[in-house]
Amino acid sequence: MGIPNNIIEDFKLCHGLLFDQIGVRLAHKCAVQANWSIEESPKARPAVQLIKTHRIQDTFIYENNLTLDKEGPLFNPPKAFSRFKENNPLYERTLDKAVIFRIDKELWNINITRDDIKPTDEFVEAIKKAIEHKTPHRALDDVFSEYGYWLNCKFKVGSRLQRFTQLEPGQDHHPKDVELRQTEWIGEFIFKDGENILFNEIHDEWSKGIRPFKGSYLLSADDSVVRTGEISAWLKYSPRVSNQWSVIERADFVPTYKFLDESLIANIEMLFSDETEILMIGESPIDYRCPDLCQVRFSQPLLSNAYKVHGEVYSQGERCDVDITLYSASIYGFFLEIEWPEFPRSFETVKTSLLLVAQHVPLIGEVANVAGQILDMMQEAHHNKAICKTIYDIVLSNMAFLGSLDKEEYSNNKSLEDFLRDVYLPTLTEIAKTIEKKKSPLEF
Hints:
Layout: H1 4-11, E1 15-19, E2 24-30, E3 32-34, E4 48-61, E5 65-69, E6 98-111, E7 117-119, H2 121-131, H3 136-147, E8 150-152, E9 154-158, E10 161-167, H4 175-181, E11 183-186, E12 189-192, E13 195-197, H5 199-207, E14 217-219, E15 225-227, H6 231-241, E16 245-249, E17 253-255, H7 262-271, E18 278-285, E19 293-297, E20 307-315, E21 318-320, E22 323-330, E23 333-339, E24 350-358, H8 364-380, H9 385-403, H10 407-412, H11 414-438
Antiparallel strand pairs: 1-2, 3-7, 4-6, 5-16, 6-9, 6-10, 8-17, 9-16, 10-11, 11-12, 12-13, 14-15, 18-24, 19-23, 20-21, 20-24, 22-23
Helix pairs in contact: 2-3, 8-9, 8-11, 9-11
């Protein structure tokens, strides 16, 4: 690893990161490139610091950091968030747990500034074409899906991840206890007190200091998704595939477009000025057996279903002129009604591109917060079917009613505001209180 440029290439540090409903991963294409010479000494660049040591131990907290191997897969993902938003409804906080690891031989501290890197010509050209596209929102989204939305600018890299463990938060750990619970990985075997131990015994030792993740997935070293029930098997496999690791701090992420020229930055930010309203951009196939109705379900409940749907339909790569209207909606998903002037010959290849935009309407935020509390209570009281059904029916029916209203109509409809303030919100609040106190079926 002796020179900075090799580090950048080995760990793909100039590749952006993607955060979406699939998970977290390195972008396929490179948005930026290093702007320093391989002949320069690390000492000549304050942004690159080499620490020569035999063993260094560091501690990182899951909530603020990601751990990537040099091939780019995620070991410890945060929950999904779309585009450049960390506060969208799909985002969840990660568990507050600590990672303690030890690096052998050498450690690099690298802090990238705007002067250290520059955008690639391919990235700049792709951005310019997207801005001039007839649907720039979608075109830019496609570009960032290839080059990454975020670039990390502060990270540590080491030549060998030699010791790794997890400790429960909020507990005091004596240094000797930490040392006992750490495991030294070399190739396919563990060396502990001079003895070789096979992987089954490695996993048993590992299990003493780790409990299953509560997240729904991890991304393994071969870019495959590892779900909760498969994590134990993946832990047995993971030491075999990684010899070099980097730890990057999420707090130091910078949007990739921030490294472009000021004029391009201004154009992108102008196009994304309504970004706070965008909930999702994506494609959903149309069932050829029922082409007039398209169903879309969210992977997680949204805080509100007060949105409108705009979309286009493509058949065999060609755009079809159709009218798309919201047929029914809930916080769990929606149905789209599609009016075709003429049915395409092959429904199997038809896909609809959907853009969901949230409506900002009076009181909906407060109503959604209370509804969200009720949904949390539903999960806690999942064994009580009567409670769940009652809450589900009320929340679903009323949210669908609100989501079907036009923004202007809603703003001018005083009687509806009275209903929200005087009837709907108090009713939801009372339901929440009843569930919290009695945990018993509700009667109306």
